[in-house]
C-alpha cells in the first residue's frame, strides 16, 4: 500500500474536527514522515510509517492539538532516521521539536549498557513530561499501538515490554486519569504475560454478558423511568470490568473466578452534581445496597481528578451489580483524563487548563531537583509516584498526597525541609504517634518541632519518599561526623582517622565535597566514593563489608565474597558499612509456594514479626490461577532463629512449601 493511501485510510478519517489549515499541516508532517521512514519495516512486515500514523490517529481520537499530532508523526525520526531536531524545528516550529526530543530515547548509552539506556530514557521522558504533559501522552499512544502489535516480537521481548507497561505506563495513564487507555494497556499486558489466565477470564466474562444482558437492560429501564419521574434526564451505559481488574480482584480477595460476581455493571450519566446524589437515592430505593460498598469520589476526588459515585446493589435473583453515577463532564475527565483539556470546543480552539495542578506533575518537577542515578530514579518512581497513594490533612485542612506507607517524617519533609530537620514528634487526629508509624488515609497530621531535634540515621529505614530520604542524607553528610551515606549504603567512619596531609582542610572524619560529589577521608586516603564490587554484586539486604582501596574509593563486597581472602591488607583497611534501608542483622532469602490467597504477604510478615524478625521485601508471582510462587528477604537478630521462622511460615494454612535460597 502506498504511503499516500496509508495516510488517507489511517489518519484522515480522524481529522474531521480540525480546520482545513490544521489538516494540511498534519498531512504535510505525515508525508514527510513517510519519506523519512521509506524502506523501513516493522516486525510485522508492514511499512514503518504505519506505526506513527496509528499513534497520531489515537491522539486525534483523543482530540489533541495539531502540535501533538505532528510530533507523534515524527516521534521516531530523530532516533531512526537522519533527521535532526533543528530540521524539525525549521519545518514545524520549536514546540514540535521539543515534544519530539522529549519522546526520543537516549541512544548514546546503548553501546555501554542497555539497562542504563532504558532507565535513563524513561527518566528523560518523565522530566520532559513535567515541562510539557503532551510528551507522555505521545508516549502512551506509542506504547498502546506497540502493545496492540506485540505478537510479532519474540516471546522474551513480549514479556519484557508487557512488564514495563504494567510497571510504568499503565500506572502513568491512571495517574493522568486516562482510564480507557489504562484499561487497554493492562488487558494487553495480561494477555501476553499470562495468556491462559487472560483467555479464561475473557471466556467467563463473555458468558456472563450473554446471561445477564437482559437483566441489566431491565435494571436500566426501571432506573430511567424513576429518574424521569424526578425530572432527571439520564443516559445509561452498560459496562464490564476490564479483564485485568478482575484478575487483580481475584488476587486481592483470594477468590476463584467463579466467585467474582460484579463483573458487569451500569453507568448513569446526568448533568449536575446534585442530580448524581438524587440518582444515588433512586438506585438505593429500587435495589438493596451492599454495606461498605459505597464510595463518594465526588466529595473526595482522586488525585487524577476522577469524580464519580460508586455503589454495589443486589438485584432480584441475588445478582450483584456495580453502579457508577457521574455527570457527562466527569465522564469525559474519567475516560480521557488530562487529554480532555485539549478536547476541541465546536471544532475551533482547544480548551486547556493548568496541568501543573496535577499532583504527579508537581512531584515530577520536585524530583528533577533531586540527585539520583537513572536506576535509583526509576525504582523510586515506581515505588513512590506510581504506587497507591494516601491523602492526609494538615491542621489547616490542606490535603497532602503521600505514597502508601509514608510516615510523619515524610509528611514533615513534604511541608518544609526545616520542619523535617527539627521533627521531634507527631500527632494523628490529636493522638501522639511514633514518627516512624505508617500514616492512614484521611488522618489530620500535626508535626511537633524542637530546635534541638535533628535527623537520625534510623530515619532512612522508615521513610518512603525520595525527598525525605534525600534531605536526611544531606543533613547527615553535612552534620554527622559518624556516618557517610551514599548509594544507599551507610559507611560508619573510623573514630580516629589520621589527619589529612594537605588542603582542602577538614576535621578528622569530616565529609568533603568536591564537584558536587560527597567524599570521605580515612587515614591518608581522600575523597573516597562508594563503589560496588563486580565480583560478588552485592544487592540490598545482603550482608556487606567495606574495603578502603587505594585510589578507587570504598569498595562494597558481600561479606561471604571469596575474593576477600585474596586481599592482603583487607583486615587493616576494612570499614563497617550497612544498607541505609535495613539494619545490620542477619539477612535471609526465603522461597514460599502456596495456594492462591490474597493474604500471603501479610501472613508471612506477621509470622516473621512475631519472632522478632523484619520483612525487608517480598515478590509474589502467579504460576497458575490457583498457585503462588513468592520470594521474601528478611532479617533476624540471631542465625539460630531462622529455623523457627521457617517453621512459623510453614504453619500458614495456604503454604505448601518453604525453603531457604542462596
Automatic annotation (TrEMBL):
Pfam family, one: TGS
InterPro entries, alphabetized: Beta-grasp_dom_sf, HD/PDEase_dom, HD_domain, NT_sf, RelA/Spo_fam, RelA_SpoT, TGS, TGS-like
GO biological process: guanosine tetraphosphate metabolic process; nucleobase-containing small molecule interconversion; response to starvation
EC nos: 2.7.6.5
Enzyme class: transferase
UniProt GO MF annotations: GTP diphosphokinase activity; guanosine-3',5'-bis(diphosphate) 3'-diphosphatase activity; kinase activity
Ranges for domain HD: 48-147
GO cellular component term, pick one: plasma membrane
Keywords: Kinase, Transferase
Pathway info: Purine metabolism
Chain intervals with Pro residues compositional bias: 496-506
Residue span(s) of domain TGS: 388-449
Residue intervals passing through the bilayer: none
Residue ranges of the region described as Disordered: 492-514
Family: Belongs to the relA/spoT family.
Function: In eubacteria ppGpp (guanosine 3'-diphosphate 5'-diphosphate) is a mediator of the stringent response that coordinates a variety of cellular activities in response to changes in nutritional abundance.
Protein name (Swiss-Prot/TrEMBL): Probable GTP pyrophosphokinase
Source organism: Winmispira thermophila (strain ATCC 49972 / DSM 6192 / RI 19.B1) (Spirochaeta thermophila)
Amino acid at each position: 500500500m502506498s504511503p499516500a493511501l496509508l495516510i488517507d485510510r489511517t489518519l484522515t478519517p480522524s481529522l474531521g474536527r480540525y480546520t482545513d489549515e490544521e489538516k494540511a499541516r498534519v498531512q504535510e508532517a505525515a508525508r514527510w514522515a513517510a519519506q523519512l521512514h521509506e524502506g523501513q519495516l516493522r516486525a510485522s512486515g508492514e511499512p514503518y510509517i504505519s506505526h506513527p500514523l496509528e499513534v497520531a490517529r489515537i491522539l486525534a481520537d483523543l482530540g489533541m492539538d495539531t502540535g501533538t499530532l505532528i510530533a507523534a508523526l515524527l516521534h521516531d525520526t530523530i532516533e531512526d532516521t537522519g533527521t535532526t531536531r533543528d530540521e524539525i524545528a525549521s519545518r514545524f516550529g520549536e514546540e514540535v521539536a521539543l515534544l519530539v526530543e522529549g519522546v526520543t530515547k537516549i541512544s548514546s548509552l546503548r553501546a555501554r549498557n542497555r539497562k542504563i539506556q532504558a532507565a535513563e530514557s524513561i527518566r528523560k521522558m518523565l522530566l520532559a513530561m513535567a515541562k510539557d504533559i503532551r510528551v507522555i501522552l505521545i508516549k502512551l499512544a506509542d506504547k498502546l499501538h506497540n502493545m496492540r502489535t506485540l505478537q510479532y516480537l519474540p516471546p522474551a521481548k513480549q514479556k519484557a515490554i508487557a512488564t514495563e507497561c504494567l510497571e510504568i505506563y499503565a500506572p502513568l495513564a491512571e495517574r493522568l486519569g486516562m482510564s480507557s487507555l489504562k484499561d487497554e494497556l493492562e488487558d494487553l499486558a495480561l494477555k501476553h504475560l499470562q495468556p491462559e489466565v487472560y483467555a479464561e477470564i475473557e471466556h467467563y466474562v463473555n458468558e456472563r454478558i450473554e446471561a445477564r444482558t437482559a437483566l441489566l437492560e431491565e435494571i436500566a429501564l426501571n432506573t430511567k423511568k424513576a429518574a424521569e419521574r424526578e425530572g432527571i434526564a439520564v443516559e445509561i451505559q452498560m459496562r464490564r470490568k476490564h479483564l485485568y481488574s478482575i484478575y487483580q480482584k481475584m488476587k486481592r480477595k483470594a477468590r476463584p473466578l467463579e466467585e467474582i460476581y460484579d463483573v458487569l455493571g451500569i453507568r448513569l450519566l446526568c448533568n449536575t452534581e446534585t442530580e448524581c446524589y438524587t440518582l444515588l437515592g433512586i438506585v438505593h430505593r429500587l435495589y438493596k445496597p451492599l454495606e461498605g460498598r459505597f464510595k463518594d469520589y465526588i466529595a473526595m476526588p482522586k488525585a487524577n481528578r476522577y469524580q464519580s459515585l460508586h455503589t454495589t446493589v443486589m438485584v432480584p435473583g441475588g445478582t450483584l451489580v456495580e453502579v457508577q453515577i457521574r455527570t457527562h463532564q466527569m465522564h469525559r475527565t474519567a475516560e480521557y483524563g488530562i487529554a480532555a483539556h485539549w478536547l476541541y470546543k465546536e471544532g475551533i480552539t482547544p480548551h486547556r487548563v493548568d496541568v501543573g495542578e496535577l499532583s504527579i506533575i508537581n512531584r515530577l518537577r520536585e524530583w528533577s531537583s533531586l540527585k539520583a542515578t537513572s536506576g535509583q530514579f526509576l525504582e523510586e518512581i515506581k515505588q513512590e509516584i506510581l504506587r497507591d497513594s494516601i491523602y492526609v490533612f494538615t491542621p489547616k485542612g490542606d490535603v497532602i498526597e503521600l505514597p502508601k506507607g509514608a510516615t510523619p517524617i515524610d509528611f514533615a519533609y513534604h511541608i518544609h525541609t526545616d520542619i523535617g530537620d527539627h521533627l521531634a514528634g507527631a500527632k494523628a487526629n490529636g493522638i501522639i504517634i511514633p514518627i516512624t508509624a505508617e500514616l492512614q488515609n484521611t488522618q489530620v497530621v500535626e508535626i511537633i518541632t524542637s530546635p534541638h531535634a535533628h535527623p537520625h540515621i534510623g530515619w532512612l529505614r522508615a521513610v518512603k519518599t525520595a525527598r525525605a530520604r534525600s534531605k536526611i542524607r544531606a543533613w547527615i553528610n553535612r552534620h554527622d561526623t559518624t556516618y557517610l551515606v551514599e548509594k544507599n549504603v551507610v559507611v560508619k567512619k573510623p573514630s580516629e582517622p589520621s589527619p589529612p596531609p594537605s588542603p582542602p582542610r577538614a576535621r578528622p572524619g569530616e565529609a568533603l565535597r568536591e564537584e558536587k560529589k560527597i567524599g570521605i577521608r580515612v587515614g591518608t586516603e581522600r575523597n573516597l566514593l562508594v563503589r560496588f564490587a563486580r565480583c560478588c554484586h552485592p544487592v540490598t539486604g545482603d550482608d556487606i563489608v567495606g574495603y578502603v582501596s587505594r585510589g578507587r574509593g570504598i569498595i562494597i563486597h558481600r561479606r561471604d565474597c571469596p575474593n576477600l581472602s585474596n586481599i592482603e591488607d583487607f583486615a587493616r583497611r576494612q570499614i563497617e558499612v550497612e544498607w541505609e534501608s535495613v539494619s545490620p542483622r542477619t539477612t535471609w532469602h526465603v522461597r514460599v509456594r502456596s495456594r492462591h490467597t490474597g493474604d500471603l504477604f501479610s501472613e508471612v510478615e506477621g509470622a516473621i514479626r512475631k519472632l522478632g524478625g523484619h520483612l525487608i521485601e517480598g515478590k509474589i508471582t502467579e504460576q497458575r490461577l490457583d498457585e503462588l510462587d513468592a520470594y521474601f528477604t528478611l532479617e533476624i537478630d540471631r542465625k539460630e532463629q531462622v529455623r523457627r521462622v521457617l517453621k512459623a511460615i510453614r504453619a500458614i494454612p495456604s503454604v505448601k512449601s518453604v525453603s531457604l535460597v542462596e
